Amino acid sequence: MRDPHLHLKDMDPDALRGWLVAEGDRAYRAEQLLGWLYARGVDDPVEMTDLPQELRDRLRSSAVRTRSLETLSVQRSVDGTRKAALRAADGAIVEAVLIPDEDRTTLCLSTQVGCPLACSFCATGEMGFTRNLRTAEIIDQVCRMREALDPEERITNVVFMGMGEPLLNLPAVLRAIRILVHPRAFALAPRRITVSTAGLVPKIAALVEAAPVNLAVSLHATTDALRDELVPLNRRFPLATLFSELGRLPGLSARRPIFFEYTLLAGVNDSVGDAERLLTLVRGLPSKVNVIPVNPHPGSPYRTPPDAAVDRFLGVLSRGGATVTLRRSRGSDIDAACGQLAARDFVVRPDRPMG
Ligand code: SAH
To answer: Which of 86, 127, 167, 347 is least enclosed, having the fewest CB within 10 Å?
Structure first.
């Protein structure tokens, strides 16, 4: 990726301050700039009226970019979920999803264009991997999606659960988190931010130590044989390695549990035996289990289990003392649900020749 521009939103608050000071500006200009770019969502320097004219001119230089993503389209689901396709300067397309709920509005962010992990049930995996997103492109998803909010809405929670594996792009993700939590920027509490990983063991402690955000781990299977198949990353970091690392993490408690995501696949990982093994794995760790009946996508061999199988699975877990929640599928009519992000409308597929 060769982009000679300075993307202002690549800098976390400290780096922005350092850059301004190095340019000869006063340090407090950083707080003002954070307010404009993030709290107010203004990215045209002309409008930044409390900055000196001369600084505004420098920010308008053709070498500087204050905006790193453009909105291509926003689709709205019958349940209010919105999915946007956003275009980067090099033409890459990423998707972000807004999920309104009774007491919250969650924004789901992408961290990569595509994903290299190729989990067998996930649509993003099928599109292959193009590149990591830069910090400016991660944080600009928040700016663009705020423009898609209804008047009474505001973003209360952010989850790194869109396209890509966040821990393969950890430095950029951490810079984005520092912008999300900065009081002059988005002022989000760290506990309202969740980073989800398929289990990139060597990076988990680095995340947890760098930011007091929630950790989610995509588990999906309770034996190495099956997890090797569903989440190929398991071949490098098998269950024993993953759980020994999770058991060593500092700062976990009932108030800061690990969230395990378990996508239920009919006839594959939804038996009573699976539920019992899952209990054994998570026992002893402060944790919550999030069960997600799979959202099938075209060409996928996986099916959603019948309600009775879902209930049976949840029953075994809760009787065994696990804290479990069932994640209702949101936005599946616009391919915005978990594992459905594939920028499908923008991919020319071989079975659909261009007219
Ligand atoms: N790579 C990270 C971030 C993506 S999070 C991770 O794997 O955690 C997206 C979540 O949705 C993951 O838990 C993923 O396993 C789950 N998911 C993927 N495809 C899905 C599908 N088709 N139906 C339901 N959940 C799915």
So the answer is: 347
